[in-house]
Input
Amino acid sequence: MKLATKKIAIGVTGGIAAYKSFELIRELKKSGAEVRVAMTDSARKFVTNLTLATLSENPVLDSLFEGNEKLGTVHIDLARWCDVFVICPATANIIAKAAAGLADDVITTSILATQAKVIFCPAMNSVMWEKPIVQQNITRLKELGCDFVDPEWGKLATKAEGEGWGRLASIESIVQKLEFTLLATSELVGKKVLVTAGPTRERIDPVRFITNYSSGKMGFALAEAAKLKGADVVLISGPNNLNKPQGLKYVEVETVEELRKAVEAEYEEADILLMSAAVSDYQTKKASAKKIKKTSAEITLQLKRSPDILALLGKKKADCIHIGFALETENGVENATEKLNTKNLDLIVLNNPLEPGAAFGGDTNIVSIINKDKQVETFTKLPKNRVAEIILNKAVEILQDRNRQVIAV
Ligand code: CTP
Output
C-alpha cells in the first residue's frame, strides 16, 4: 500500500488509449491511493463515465456545467483536492490547449486551477508525436513545470499505422513516475548506493548450473527505495524474471566471480552497500567445457569455496555502510550476529525462509534487523518495498549520526 492516503486525479482525454486508464486506476487503487477522474467530451466517445466511476469508486467529473448546477466549482474542488494530476492518455489536442493556457473543458480548467504537479502521459499516432508543433508544446509545458511520461515505441492503434513512437507508456512506468512524484525525498541525494540482488549461477557444464531460489525481489525493492530517497543507485543482479528498473544503473551478472568483479568496480565511491544477493558459497572446481554425458556409474561433483565478497570488502571498509543479509532456519539471531562481526557489517537483516510470508519469491518478508550494539528489532510480515524502506531509513540514521559526530568534533 505504497500510495496509501495519496490523492490522485486522473484526466482522461479522447484517444484510443483511454481504455488503458482503467488499468492505471486499478493499479493506483491497489496501491492504496484515492482516485478521482475527470474526462473530456471526446473521452466519452471511447470509454464510459460509469466504468471510470466504478473503478475509481468516485463520481466522475465529465462536464463543467451539466449536472453540476448546484456546485459551480467542482473542477476547482478536484484541482484543490489532488496531490498530483495525471493526464492519461494525453492527446495532442489537450497538450496544445494546456500549453496555450486555455480552460474550456474540465481537464484544462483543472490544470489551471491546481497547485499540484501535473503529469502528461501522451499517446498518439507517431507522425503527430513527431510534429514540431507538438514537441514545441511539450517543451513549453516542461518549462512551465509540468512532467511527462514519454510514450514508447510499439504497435500503434491500427494496422495501417504499424509500429512507431506514440504508444502510451506502460502502466508500470506511469505508476513509478507517480510514486516518485509523491514519495521521493532527498535524504540520499549525492550518495551512491550499491545494491546486489538475485541468485548466482555456477556452471557445471554448458547446460547445467548450481543456483538457488532467490527471485531478486528484495534487492530490486531496496534499489527502488534508495532511488526514492534521491540516491545514485547501482543495482547488480544475478538472473531474474523481474522488469528492468528505470532511473538507475543496472548491471547483469551470472557467476560469483562476475558479481565480485562488478561489485569491486563500483565499490570505491559507494556510501552504502546492500548485499542482498544470494551468493553461492561453493562453485565447481572446474566447469566442463563439454556437456557431461550420463553413464551407469555415479558421479561426484567437486566443489570449492567461493570468495566471500562481503567479508573481503569488510576488510578494506572505510566509510561505506555495509548491510548484509542472513538466511537462517535455526539459531537465527546468534548466527546472524556472528556474521555481522566476522564480515564487519553495520547492520544485518535476518530472515527465515521457512516462515510463511518470508519464503523465496514472495512479495512479503519477515525480518529482524541487528545492529553493531547487538540490538535486535523484529518486524511483522510486511511487503518487501516496506521492508526496503525500513532498511534504507536505518542506513540514513547511521549516516546522520556520523555527520552529527563530525560536527560535534
Ligand atoms: N555473501 C557474499 N559472498 C559470499 C556469500 C555470501 O558476499 N560468497 C553475502 C550475502 O550477500 C549476504 C551475506 O553475505 O549478505 C550472507 O552471509 P553467508 O555467510 O553466506 O550466509 P548464508 O549464505 O545466508 O548462510 P550460511 O553461510 O550460514 O549457510
Remarks:
- The longest strand covers residues 84-90.
- Residues 7-182 form a domain with the Rossmann fold fold (CATH 3.40.50.1950).
- The chain has two domains: 7-182, 185-290+297-408.
